[in-house]
Amino acid sequence: MTPINLTPADLAIASSLVLLCAVLSLILSLRVHRALLLAAVRMVVQLLLVGFVLRIVFQLSNPWVTLLVAAVMAGAATYEVGARQEHRLPAPWQFVTGGGATVLATVTITVLALTTALRPEPWYNSREALPLTGIILGNVMNAVSLSLDTFFNTIRRERAAIEARLALGSSRYGALRDVSAQAVRTALIPTINVMSAAGVITMPGIMTGQLLAGMDPVGAAKYQILLMFLIVGGNCLGAFAAVYFSIFRLTDHRDRLRLDLLRTR
Amino acid sequence: MLLEINGLTGTPGGPFRLEVDAGECVVISGPSGIGKSLLLRMIADLDENEGSVLLSGASRNAMPAPQWRRQVTYVAAESGWWAANVREHMHPAQSALPFLSQLGLGEQLLDASVSQLSTGERQRLALIRAVIRKPRVLLLDEPTSALDEKTVLRVEALLKDLMASGTGIVMVTHNEQQAHRMATRRYHMTSGQLTEISA
């Protein structure tokens, strides 16, 4: 295997594309140049920092350090899930529904993968555990975020319909069945799209990376298939958990709809 | 006594005391925004509240809320619909047919799309939707506000049939003539309390 080593000059040439976009935005007054440049700088700083941190973490090869890094990643994901919601539960429930569901699904799937399919030696080998956690976490975070956004918006819009069902004697789970199904479906659509298009329309990121790094294409495909299964499992689990935590929080023991507990920013 | 409410308190104030016998129609009137709808919602246990509410002596808190609401059913002033077609809201759909004709609605409305219904059609269908589930008490929030005079009388005839078969009704209305025609007992609601007035 011959990994590609990029020089600063290589990156500089590619970065001119971002500058070009920013210039176009200025000329056409699209007003995205500031956000674009800021995000690009953030991305560069974050990735380089992660590169250096991981280099140290890999050398240390200590389970506690690996767990600490995973915990920091989970904390950041929890914050991001909450930050994108138009409507949300007051703290601490905002973090329990969003972050709790994300972490629950990620830990379940990661542990499952590390103890069955991947089995690195030792199990806490951070070179395998951390990238895997990152991929699952990023995907689950999106799924949870989408499911919560859909759930909160739909439950507000459909309030009269939900209360009509409650008034006629439905339980809270019966009255919210359609809303929860809609939320989970919305959360899973991107994953289903990615799976259907995998290999034909797009080459998934991990497979691309492994091909560029010189891995056998069939081996890379198998690895990507495993990852897609893990991601689907994680997204499904995360979306369901987020929706059911929210139902639990937005209804009460007398099967009432408690939208008074939902905050709008 | 069919429905016995004592010391009911919540957002609209209280404590409220109210009794409804089988076959009775209790009419509640009062200024807009005073909390008449909220009072009905509290009786149906749709909003947080405290107090004693009994149905034929059985305490509301001793049974699951959905079971309570199947017997003491609230029909909101503005109806909500959860499926695309009318039929999907009617269980069983066949039992809606006699009520459709009694309220001057065609049978084909059963297969109509909810989004194409007029306000008046929705109001009557929401009432039918509740009635076919055979509740023992109906909590009606301005049940005829969108209807012309002739249709109002049809709805009232249906409600009187229900009363004759032992259903209790608590009705909120702004229509003074309707209150006169329907009420076996009348209450006036002012901020946080009910006062009995002569029917």
From TrEMBL, chain A:
GO terms for cellular component: plasma membrane. Signal peptide: none annotated. It is found in: Membrane. InterPro entries: UPF0014_fam. The keyword Transmembrane helix applies. Keywords: Membrane, Transmembrane, Transmembrane helix. The chain crosses the membrane at residues 12-30, 37-58, 64-83, 95-118, 130-152, 192-213, 225-248. It is a multi-pass membrane protein. Belongs to the UPF0014 family. PANTHER family: PROTEIN ALUMINUM SENSITIVE 3, UPF0014 INNER MEMBRANE PROTEIN YBBM-RELATED. This is Putative ABC transport system permease protein. It comes from Acidocella aromatica. The lineage of its organism: Bacteria, Pseudomonadati, Pseudomonadota, Alphaproteobacteria, Acetobacterales.
From TrEMBL, chain B:
InterPro entries: AAA+_ATPase (IPR003593), ABC_transporter-like_ATP-bd (IPR003439), P-loop_NTPase (IPR027417). PANTHER family: ABC TRANSPORT PROTEIN ATP-BINDING COMPONENT-RELATED, ABC TRANSPORTER DOMAIN-CONTAINING PROTEIN. Residues 3-199 form the ABC transporter domain. This is ABC-type iron transport system FetAB ATPase subunit. PROSITE patterns: ABC_TRANSPORTER_2 (PS50893). Keywords: ATP-binding, Nucleotide-binding. It comes from Acidocella aromatica. One of its GO terms (molecular function) is ATP hydrolysis activity. The keyword ATP-binding applies. The keyword Nucleotide-binding applies. Transmembrane segments: none annotated. Coiled coil: none annotated. Gene3D superfamilies: P-loop containing nucleotide triphosphate hydrolases (3.40.50.300).
